[in-house]
């Protein structure tokens, strides 16, 4: 009975297992796979509802019969023993040129996955939502990666409940923060922690918390705005003795407290990155005690003093770049025999390269550029590493002598020796560097010839820079076919001409070509423009290239920067070249109109300079097609007609130069749409009408330079100009402007404050592409200075000038002008100004040039004028000034012509004496005469007294001495007889 019942029960179980009831799992013949648990499957489907399946990542998830088993869904893994979901791995991934990722929100339905121990949503986009607190309830979690998921707000402290967690990565979300890291204390099993880019600026006790993670191996706190640890955190109590990898770069750490904390890990640290912090003082020698340290990065800090003489002998990577280290490179660096990468860039190191570096047999990269290193380079200064060294950068130092022979450097790929004081010829051993890709030796004093023999074995060469070696003669045959395809060619300021270098025709991949100032003459060959289709930058300026640029069919693929200025090119400007993103054709002999600008469907240029040519005709009224134009310079040509209304479409323009043409008419009102304008130079044209008031009505509020000199403007100066707070140069001279000088000039605040050194524009080429190329331009301006026109560039921003000369201005000079304390030049000459010079003129202590000549000014010269010590040019001539020229070495140092034409002026340096001065002159002469008479009187009195005393002295002797008296009379008798 029992056996029969057992057999029935067994049969029932087998029957049950062989059917397909709708249970959460099943076992079938030929299929040992166990399906997922129903409630967990529903939890995943609920999660899917909150996700936008943009890339079909969750397309395998569904309720269809074929998708019943969630353990087979993409990114899902289940336990083979319990059927529970244990792993959810749905990180972003790259497919072709795009990254595919999840987007949406995390559903709390995931709480059903209580056996989940691995969760990876890295690279997803949770659209700035807060990180769900319920994740802290998944207590079986050992691996949690939510990096770069676009969460924001505070990290939930509930994560501290994940006591089994070994791996935690919350990096990459700068909108997340944590005021303290106390929640980490519960993660006692943690071995990997990354909070890169999370804002931890308020977590002042972060180091104490890290000390409580005894098994931590890998710690990443990069770019967290991390403060320096406070003193109590220096305790080593319960600290991790196993920490091997530590990245604290891009924070606010200072030397005073971080170094002692680091030394708690002397025995374990292998990798230490403290770059981009605020470390000060001398780098400690205590790094020597970090016996296991292989990588040390202290770059981009403020370290001073000398390089530590003793460092861990295990070091493979050492970077002390971009500090303020001084002294010489210690010989002890030669003891770091494991060193492969040594970076000492941008410090203040001096002396020679120590001979001990020849012991670094494993060295791969040596970068010492931008220091003050000196001396000769010995032939074997890197003897042991010559067959392994891949990069050597000694540029921007003061090395002298010949370029050393690089015999045996079989692995060298990049050689940078530029900006030193090397002389002599280029060594023939360069040809032996078969792996060389970059050869850069610019700005030295090399001489002699560079021939095919130097370059014929450099099959991998892509970058050649021998520029700014004026005595170096690049003698490469026009028929030579190089074995390489260069991408960057810099041969500017070398002897490359006179013929155009024919070997360039073989270089089909050139992205940057600079052969400016290289003595090339004659025309450009027909093949030249065919190699420029992929060009990024082309510079053939400052040569003697002649002829016409052919109208080539070349189409630039990258909107290049092209500089062909300062040559003798002629003819019309070809259409194809207007495709450039930056174009300088100035100082040539191009002629004809520029109507071809209208044939360009969409002008890409951000910079267009056609100045100093022979161009003529009207400006085309199609400038709206050049929406990205930032700098337009058409000065010194023969353009005529009106300024077109379409100029108002240049809403990106910041610099407009149209001076010295024959433009007529009034300023177009559309110009007020160009609100970014900083420099407007329309001088030396035939423009007329009133100066528009809209210039100052917040439309052109960014103006720094406004130059309208030598035109035919009339009417008064609009007071709206006083709203130009940034204006530094105002030149309205040589027009027909009348009325009074506005008293509101004191509102020109940039003439009160110190200016910046240069006027720079930053822009992209072209503006309408997603991946535009950033560039910049330093503006220049011709300014009337001390009677002559000068071009200012790098010091333009320091110039503060007002020139209203040669107009019909009347009234007095407003005292408010003397509020412009940083004004350097003021020219109000050749007007009809009356009354006195403002008595406070001496406040303008920065003044260098003051010209008030040829007006009707009256009264005395203010004594305060003598207080302007910097004044080098002064002209007060041809006015009605009166009185005495104030005394002071400054005013008396000028020539008398400074004051001529003022008949009522007197005193030096004029020869005319003032009335008061004549009386003063008499007084000293009378006193001298009286003194002389007194001297004469006393002389005569002295003579008389002497006679009387002498006479009576003799008589007295004769009367009282009888023998003398008798002898005397006997003598007289004898003389008589």
Characterization of the model:
By secondary structure, the protein is α/β, with parallel strands linked by helices. Helices cover 11% and strands 23% of the residues. It has 8 helices and 63 strands. The strands form 8 sheets. It has a 32-stranded mixed beta sheet, with no helix packed on it. Strands 32-34-36-38-40-42-44-46-48-50-56-58-60-62-63 form a 15-stranded parallel beta sheet, with no helix packed on it. A hairpin with a 2-residue loop joins β53 and β54. The N and C termini lie far apart (211 Å). Residues 1-33, 232-239, 921-937, 954-959 and 967-977 have low confidence and may be disordered.
Set down the secondary structure blueprint:
Blueprint: H1 2-18, H2 38-49, E1 76-78, E2 85-89, E3 93-95, E4 98-100, E5 118-120, E6 143-145, E7 153-154, E8 167-169, E9 176-177, E10 192-194, H3 206-210, E11 218-220, E12 245-247, H4 255-262, E13 271-273, E14 280-281, E15 295-297, E16 302-303, E17 317-319, E18 341-343, E19 350-351, E20 365-367, E21 372-375, E22 391-393, E23 398-402, E24 414-416, E25 421-424, E26 438-440, E27 445-450, H5 452-455, E28 463-465, E29 471-474, E30 488-490, E31 512-514, E32 521-522, E33 537-539, E34 544-548, E35 561-563, E36 568-571, E37 582-584, E38 589-592, E39 607-609, E40 614-618, E41 631-633, E42 638-642, E43 655-657, E44 662-665, E45 679-681, E46 686-690, E47 705-707, E48 712-715, E49 729-731, E50 736-740, E51 760-765, E52 773-778, E53 781-785, E54 788-792, E55 801-803, E56 808-812, E57 825-827, E58 832-835, E59 849-851, E60 856-859, E61 873-875, E62 880-884, H6 889-892, E63 904-906, H7 915-960, H8 962-976
Parallel strand pairs: 2-5, 5-6, 6-8, 7-9, 8-10, 10-11, 11-12, 12-13, 13-15, 14-16, 15-17, 17-18, 18-20, 19-21, 20-22, 21-23, 22-24, 23-25, 24-26, 25-27, 26-28, 27-29, 28-30, 30-31, 31-33, 32-34, 33-35, 34-36, 35-37, 36-38, 37-39, 38-40, 39-41, 40-42, 41-43, 42-44, 43-45, 44-46, 45-47, 46-48, ...
Antiparallel strand pairs: 1-2, 3-4, 51-52, 53-54
